[in-house]
Specification:
The protein is an alpha/beta fold and 384 residues long. The protein has a single domain, classed as Metal-dependent hydrolases (TIM Barrel, Alpha-Beta Barrel), CATH 3.20.20.140. It contains 13 helices and 16 strands. Strands 1, 2, 3, 4, 5, 14, 15 and 16 form an eight-stranded mixed sheet that branches. Strands 6-7-8-9-10-11-12-13 form an eight-stranded parallel sheet, sandwiched between helices. The chain starts with a strand and ends with a strand.
C-alpha cells in the first residue's frame, strides 16, 4: 500500500475551487479535505492549482515526431517516446493518438501498413513500460479515399482502438467550402503547380462523390457492432448533423459553423473544438470561432489538435482573461466532459474514488494565461 498527501493546493473540483489537501492511496483519491495537512511527508504544492489530469481526444502530434520533414521518417519507438514526453509535460494523462486510415492520392502520403506499424509500436512501448501517459488509438478515417476500409481492417487485431472519426476533407465542402481557402491550406504543403493542383482537386472531388457515402455507412455499421465511439468531422450544415445522428456518432469534431455546432449540442452530441482556435481567437481555416461556441454554451470538449500545450492555455484563457467560463467549467472541457463522453468513469475530476491523475499548475501573476505545468502524476506516480 502506498499513500500520498498533496497539500497547500488550490484544488479545482467539479464545481468549485478550494484551498486544501488531497489524500491518495494506491493511486486512487480517497479523501479531499480543506486546510493544510499535517502529514510529515506531504507534497507541498505551495499554493499552486491542483487540477485533474487532462484528457486529449484528438491529437495529430505523433505524426510530427514520426515525420518531422517531408519524406523524413524517424524511428517509431523514439518518435512515440518524444511525443509521450511532450504530452505528459502538457498535463495530459490520457491521450487518444490519431492515426490515419485512407491515403489521399498525392506524393508524400504514408505507405500502406505504416499506421498499423505505429500502432504496434505503441503497444510494444506500453508493454515495455516506456510510456508516461495512458495512450489509446483514434482512427481518423478519410471516407473519401478508395483504401480507407483496407487500412481500417488492418487494425482488427490491434488493441486499444478507442475512437473512430469519419472525415471527408475533399475540397468544396465541410472544412473547405471555399476552394481558395483549400488552395491556401494545401497547395504550398503539397508543392504542386497550378495545373497539378487543379488535377488534384478534380480527383479529390471525384473520389468524394464515389466513396464517401458508402464508406461512412460501412464504418458506422462496424463501429456500432464493436461498440467503438464515433465522431463526425467538420459538420457544416443541419443535413450533416442529421446524418451524424443517423450514423450514431457521439462527438461532433470541429463543426465549421455555429448552426451545426448548436444543432449538434442540442441533439446531445459532445461538441469538440480546437484549443488553438481558442488561443488564437479564430479558426486557422476561417470557420466558426471556438470562443463563439463558449459564449453560446454549446462547447463541450477542447482538443489540442496540433499544439499539446494549448489545452491548459485555453482553459486559463477562457476562465481568467475572457471570463466566459469559471475555472471548473473551463477545466471540465479537457477532463470531466471527455471522460464522461468516452465512458472513462475512473478519471476526469478530483473526486473520491477517481484515479489520482493530477497536475500542479502555477501562474507567474494572478492573471497569467500562460500557465506553468510544474508536476504531473498519473495514478499517483510522477510522470513529468
Amino acid at each position: 500500500m502506498t499513500e500520498q498527501v498533496f497539500t497547500s493546493a488550490r484544488i479545482v473540483l467539479a464545481d468549485e475551487v478550494i484551498d486544501g489537501s488531497v489524500h491518495v492511496k494506491d493511486g486512487v483519491i480517497n479523501d479531499i479535505a480543506p486546510g493544510k495537512s499535517s502529514a510529515l511527508a506531504a507534497i507541498d504544492c505551495g499554493g499552486d492549482y491542483l487540477v485533474p489530469g487532462l484528457i486529449e481526444l484528438h491529437t495529430d502530434h505523433l505524426e510530427t515526431h514520426y515525420c518531422p520533414r517531408p519524406g523524413v521518417r524517424w524511428g517509431m519507438l523514439p518518435s512515440i517516446q518524444a511525443h509521450d514526453a511532450q504530452i505528459a509535460a502538457a498535463g495530459i494523462t490520457t491521450v487518444y493518438d490519431c492515426l490515419r486510415c485512407g491515403r489521399e492520392n498525392y506524393q508524400g502520403g504514408y505507405d500502406a501498413g505504416e499506421m498499423k506499424a505505429m500502432a504496434e509500436s505503441l503497444e510494444l512501448a506500453r508493454t515495455q513500460n516506456r510510456l508516461r501517459v495512458d495512450h489509446r488509438l483514434h482512427l481518423r478515417c478519410e471516407v473519401s479515399t478508395a483504401d480507407v476500409l483496407e487500412d481500417f481492417y488492418q487494425f482488427d487485431e490491434i488493441p486499444g482502438v478507442g475512437m473512430v472519426s469519419l472525415m471527408d476533407h475533399a475540397p468544396g465542402q465541410r472544412q473547405f467550402t471555399s476552394l481558395d481557402s483549400y488552395a491556401q491550406y494545401k497547395q504550398k504543403r503539397l508543392k504542386m503547380s497550378d495545373s497539378e493542383f487543379a488535377e488534384h482537386i478534380d480527383l479529390r472531388v471525384k473520389d468524394s462523390k464515389t466513396y464517401s457515402d458508402k464508406h461512412r455507412r460501412k464504418l458506422s455499421e462496424i463501429c456500432a457492432q464493436r461498440s467503438i465511439p464515433m465522431a463526425s468531422h467538420d459538420d457544416a450544415t443541419l443535413s450533416h448533423v442529421r446524418e451524424s445522428i443517423e450514423y450514431g456518432v457521439r462527438i461532433a469534431e470541429f463543426p465549421t459553423t455555429y448552426e451545426a455546432a448548436r444543432a449538434s449540442h442540442d441533439a446531445g452530441l459532445g461538441v469538440l473544438m480546437g484549443a488553438p482556435n481558442v488561443v488564437r481567437g479564430q479558426s486557422h481555416s476561417g470557420n466558426v470561432a471556438a470562443r463563439t461556441l463558449a459564449e453560446n454554451q454549446c462547447l463541450d470538449v477542447l482538443s489540442s489538435d496540433y499544439i499539446p500545450s494549448s489545452l491548459m492555455q485555453a482553459v486559463f484563457m477562457l476562465a481568467l482573461e475572457l471570463k466566459l467560463l469559471s475555472l471548473p467549467e473551463a477545466l471540465a472541457l479537457v477532463s470531466k466532459n471527455p471522460a464522461n463522453i468516452m465512458g472513462l468513469h475512473d478519471r476526469g475530476e478530483i473526486a473520491v474514488g477517481r484515479r489520482a491523475d493530477l497536475v500542479q499548475v502555477s501562474q507567474a501573476t494572478p492573471t497569467d494565461v500562460a500557465p506553468i505545468v510544474r508536476t504531473v502524476w498519473r495514478e499517483g506516480s510522477r510522470v513529468s
